Structure formats: C-alpha cells, structure tokens
Amino acid sequence: MAAPKSCDDSTVDCCENWRHEATIHCRDCTEDFCQICFAVTHPTRELHYHDDVQIKHKGIQIPKCSRSRDETSCVCVIINCTDPERFNCPKCFALHHRDCGRK
After folding, report:
1. 15-46: per-residue pLDDT in tens?
2. CB–CB of 34/5 below 8 Å?
3. Residue 94, domain extent
4. Euclidean distance between CA atoms 47 and 12, whole angstroms
C-alpha cells in the first residue's frame, strides 16, 4: 500500500489526518479517508463491510436542514441574503427566507 499523499492544501482532506489526501469515501461512515487511514479504521468485522467508493465517484451530498434536520430541497440564491443557512427544508425556507429578493 502506497503512503498517502501528504500536503498542506489537499483537494479533499482525510478525516483522520487533514494532511493526507482522501481517496476513499465511506458511505456508511459518511467520511473521506486516505487509503491507509481507511484500512486502519475499518479492519473490524463490523466496519469491514462498509460500502466504500473512490472520491471521484462520491457524488454531491446535499446537507440536511440545520434547523429542522429534515431533507433539504430549497436553496437561497439571493446574493444579498443575510441568513447564514442557505440550504433549508421548505418550512424553514418559507420562514427564514420569505423576504429574500424583496426591496
């Protein structure tokens, strides 16, 4: 097994060591790992069967609404929006972004 790429500005940080370039995404842990850290943290019987994919096949992950923890389906794209939470469920979006875009 090759040593992980070690750098100060990695494209995707390994969750175990931010100086390592992550190459694997564990769908069960929902974390990104370099190959060595993944092998070290997943040798047990329970973790050995976790579903892993190469980072390039990870896809886009849409965060849950931080207020309600419901599925996010609304994103505020207004440049002057002052609410720090851009990703929201429909209920929170209607409540917290109702004035976005209005002058």
Report:
1. 999 889 999 999 888 899 999 999 998 888 77
2. yes
3. 61-102
4. 22
Q: Which residue type sits at 61?
A: Q
Q: Does residue 52 belong to any structural domain of this protein?
A: yes
Tokens representing 93? Answer: 């979006």
Residue 72 vs residue 103, higher pLDDT: 72
CA-to-CA distance for 69 and 57, rounded, in angstroms? 26
Same domain? 53 vs 15 = yes
> What tokens does 79 get?
């440049």
Q: Which helix (H) or strand (E) element contains residue 47? A: helix 45-48
**Token digits for 50?**
């976790």
Q: Are residues 39 and 15 in the same domain?
A: yes
Q: What is the pTM of this model?
A: 0.54
17 and 55 in a single domain? The answer is yes
Q: Which of 58, 60, 56, 22 is nearest to 41 (CA)?
A: 22
The answer to the question of residue 3 being in a domain is no
